[in-house]
Amino acid sequence: xxxxxxxxxxxxxxxxxxxxxxxxxxxxxxxxxxxxxxxxxxxxxxxxxxxxxxxxxxxxxxxxxxxxxxxxxxxxxxxxxxxxxxxxxxxxxxxxxxxxxxxxxxxxxxxxxxxxxxxxxxxxxxxxxxxxxxxxxxxxxxxxxxxxxxxxxxxxxxxxxxxxxxxxxxxxxxxxxxxxxxxxxxxxxxxxxxxxxxxxxxxxxxxxxxxxxxxxxxxxxxxxxxxxxxxxxxxxxxxxxxxxxxxxxxxxxxxxxxxxxxxxxxxxxxxxxxxxxxxxxxxxx
Length: 285
Known about the structure:
The chain has helices at about 15-30, 100-105, 200-215, 220-230, 240-270, and strands spanning about 1-5, 35-40, 50, 55-65, 70-75, 75-80, 95, 115-120, 130-135, 135-140, 145, 150-155, 165, 180, 195, 235. The strands form 3 sheets. The protein has an 8-stranded mixed beta sheet with strand order 11-12-8-4-3-2-1-16. The protein has a 5-stranded mixed beta sheet with strand order 7-6-5-9-10, with no helix packed on it. Strand 1 (about 1-5), helix 1 and strand 2 (about 35-40) form a beta-alpha-beta unit. By secondary structure, it is α+β, with helices and mostly antiparallel strands. The chain contains 5 helices and 16 strands. The model is unreliable at about 280-285 (pLDDT under 50). The protein is globular.
């Protein structure tokens, strides 16, 4: 996955929310190995990106406490916890797509109206995110593509539709080094790579213009021109191994932190009466 970053002098901590988001999207299969991503470097919550997968699209990520409902209008999406709430002006999430250009506060013609993806991530995934368009509630199986050009992704239920690239041990050239398969096989011992087919040239051109615009929207004119002139030097490639192992490494860090804090607590409590480990049968007065 290629990620465009504006300034190597940025605070490292500002990139952490972005990488957490990208790991989630990669793990779910929303972004594949050859996806390209342009973040807004001033978005501390990492909610809005421009992305290139099989198409060029603005992608807005929203973490919802419950699946709730998304209601789709012409150039607008709303989310609320209830069916009726998603149709009201005070919906917790109300995105007017033409206004997203104002969200980045810069001279940007953000072409999101017909190139927009809303990703809903929920903690409670016992139900699917409800999709309402017109007068009907739609079923989606993890992804719903509206005729209006809006895509809604229920992250907990998303199933990748792209092919998987399987290493071809009999390849005689780079051209046939990978064999595409429509679904991920379960054959053990083989490393598989999430793979999108190369997007159409128009989508690539559209993404580089829109993505660079989003990435530089809040810069001064001088800095914006510098980044645009050297945009090919502002991209880093995140390998599939790093993305795939990020969750595992993070869990290891948290486990080590938990172990250290328990060791410290044990040392502090040395010499005090140990807690009773049996059934708590005594009433607390």
